[in-house]
Amino acid sequence: MTDPRLTPLSASLPDTVPFVGPETQERRMGHAFTARLGANESVFGPSPRAVDAMQRAAQDAWMYGDPEAQELRHAIAAHHGVDPGHIRVGEGIDGLLGLLVRLTVGSGDWVVTSEGGYPTFDFHVTGFGGRIEHVPYDGDRVDAMALVERAAWSGAKLVYIANPDNPMGGVHDAATIQAMVEALPDGALLVLDEAYVEFAPEADLPRIDPADGRVIRLRTFSKAHGLAGARVGYAIGPKPLIAAFDRVRNHFGLNRMAQAGALAALLDADHLAHVVTQVTRARARIAAIAHDNGLVALPSATNFVAIDCGSDGAFAKRVVTALAERGVFVRMPGVAPLNRCIRVTAGREADLDVFAQALPPALETARTAP
Amino acid sequence: MTDPRLTPLSASLPDTVPFVGPETQERRMGHAFTARLGANESVFGPSPRAVDAMQRAAQDAWMYGDPEAQELRHAIAAHHGVDPGHIRVGEGIDGLLGLLVRLTVGSGDWVVTSEGGYPTFDFHVTGFGGRIEHVPYDGDRVDAMALVERAAWSGAKLVYIANPDNPMGGVHDAATIQAMVEALPDGALLVLDEAYVEFAPEADLPRIDPADGRVIRLRTFSKAHGLAGARVGYAIGPKPLIAAFDRVRNHFGLNRMAQAGALAALLDADHLAHVVTQVTRARARIAAIAHDNGLVALPSATNFVAIDCGSDGAFAKRVVTALAERGVFVRMPGVAPLNRCIRVTAGREADLDVFAQALPPALETARTAP
Description:
2 copies of one chain form a homodimer. By secondary structure, chain A is α/β, with parallel strands linked by helices. Chain A has helices at 8-12, 22-29, 48-58, 70-80, 92-104, 119-127, 144-154, 174-183, 239-244, 256-267, 269-292, 313-325, 349-368, and strands at 35-36, 87-90, 110-114, 131-135, 158-162, 189-193, 215-220, 233-236, 296-297, 304-308, 328-329, 341-345. Chain A folds into 2 domains: 8-45 and 270-368, Aspartate Aminotransferase, domain 1 (Alpha-Beta Complex); 48-268, Aspartate Aminotransferase, domain 2 (3-Layer(aba) Sandwich), CATH 3.40.640.10. Helices cover 41% and strands 14% of the residues of chain A. In chain A, a hairpin with a 6-residue loop joins β9 and β10.
């Protein structure tokens, strides 16, 4: 039954959600995961300084957080060497994407993204009545230039690309992203989701003028900074667009502890470097585990590795389910041909021991299942 | 300059924000407030158990919070003796109001609220292209039945009332709210904002069936529970409407520490009772301070007191500014005739000492200013 007061748009929206949380799966299964490797969280944890800052801020939780997140916003601006007017802090990239879509996508407007790309972007576009053109991957890579070409045909308002890519893990070099920007049709905005950028080679990072009206970049404290539970992300973009968020955002929406934690995390470069080192090691080990099982790991510039299970989506899904039964939480891409893969987050040695033990019997189960 | 890619609606929105935070004022003034009595935060703080729960959860901040907030949602449901399907947890009442307006108010749809009522509701309605009918207060009380009558004329989708009332502090008895529900025209939804309900006399609380399709109630952990910085609120309402939030909400938006803190706060009834007692005392003292200065305090069923400064909005604004210069943060209603008042949050003895000291010279300044 649908509430009769919903707008026609709201009434038309599907009941599906972008992601089912691991807790929901745990409740369904009746047991907890022993290795949480499905949401690309940083199992290596946040900076101890961030934990300390959040714990101290908890005592002041009776106060609303600063609605301008001034201290954090200025620190981010300094970190990037840009004016604070180019920075907008929000409740994770998910929250910022929702606001960006709301600001720019009206009913019937087109956006372009990759087939099998980030479902939450699609969720927001659909939620605001936009229409989505899905461009197939070029093999296991986002077809960067095809996204831009399709935008010219459809007159799309937004062109979304995650670089490094989720769910496949690859990265385009700086020249490719810069070529996208140059080829972008008038009236379109490139939404460059850089959630995993800290794990990519420095040389691959595109140089983008924050004042460039053609691009908005999105960053997060949820991945390399290990603060997924805090919900803090930020956008870097042209000032008029960044300012427009004030017209629609939940001004007091940013948790006070989250602001303190993100600031401390940003300033702890050593911890970040430590995490990146650990992730590099974990990627190698995941690749080795895949190889030991006769599978192929795709190259990754993120904190996860897509493993080609060598069959189709139905098979990979059985692998995911069989791993879950053995206490390992992983996810997989949603559409063919990407969905022949499973996606495994970089874990600690102990997490990957669990994965290494669970994978052979999970594959066996998947192969013998009906 | 406006970004050219904004939707016509976004481009038309004003740049004003619902509230300026005290931190922004402090930065402008160049000094900090010594008494923070303007945002109706609970100066008495959250439950120590909530602080402890948040501090423990901070160590797990690398994990996303449960997107279903299952534990908290079930605890809230048990607290109210209702099925969890009637409960939706969100990022404060502000966040929930935004989602509710998005779900129900399309471009050109009407809503009804009070003239001088909660600005953030108006902000959301305007932000989604809705139109607002403002009903004047009946003296210093919300004109409850006039709201409903106006909804019948305009075919409004939503009728908003805060009970107890913000910014004036009064409360309508249960019979009045129940009469509103009975008189509500078909197709309208009563949005009953109960942010301050814990401070009101128990006898005044209306009995509302959570399955009643005519009403959605909003509660928060920001006021009596002292967790404004955590950003947690919840809605109680009919299941189809509660379920519809899943179509548009930021599923992973609820901070992990916030979920833990709210749960612990909900279970600490002793702390809540302690806070209510302190607030009752503070209200009496604020009234006495007003009286000592020849001013009249309005009756309050909230954690703040509106003080009638005996003149007009310009005068009250000078009082607010003069108090700020003396380190006291208070706010005032936005429209006449309510804006002859200043609104003072219930504070600790020390906070109210500062207020008591600052008020006479602030009034003096206001009286002699140009």
